[in-house]
Amino acid sequence: MRLIEAGDDVGAKERLDQVRNAPSITGSDWPLPTILAEWGCDDELWSKIRAKRRLLQLANSGDEEEGRARIAKLKAAVAAEAVANASKEGAAKAKVPNRSHAKESGGGGAKPLSDGYSLDGEAPAGVDVASVEKLLADRVAAKLAREYGTADALQEQLEGMGVFCNDRQRTWSGERPR
Q1: Three-class SS of residue 30?
Q2: Its pTM surpasses 0.70
Q3: Which of 17, 76, 133, 162 has the fewest CB atoms within 10 Å, i.e. is most exposed?
């Protein structure tokens, strides 16, 4: 950054990008720790995580709840990125009408799957929020991968925990949606 500030524009941005993307910074050559695999991180997700340091700190400290929550957020982010990339590719191949006007006009359209799910109100008593968020992130990923049987099985598992999803509003709670 100081190279750019000092006025050395020629190649400075490229060198800065090269440093930012170095394996020692991104952790691209670091193996997946066993504890993170136990918490729900897989090799595919690990390979897509650019900044691994915070997740490694959670693993080293043994903060399983925060680690699982972070993994769930990363899975949702990767799934959202996949949806964004797929929609960009789809829009380039064919002109698809923009449906965002349905929300603006009160048409009641569903929120995008890439938004993930959020808690509506209070979590049901005795429910581990981090586990629910992980299952929801896995469900989103399954739907995006068009693995609907897996998504349905995850929904049944959530309902067994007393957690119900509203797929139009992308919320979850302890009450069945109406």
Answers
A1: coil
A2: no
A3: 17
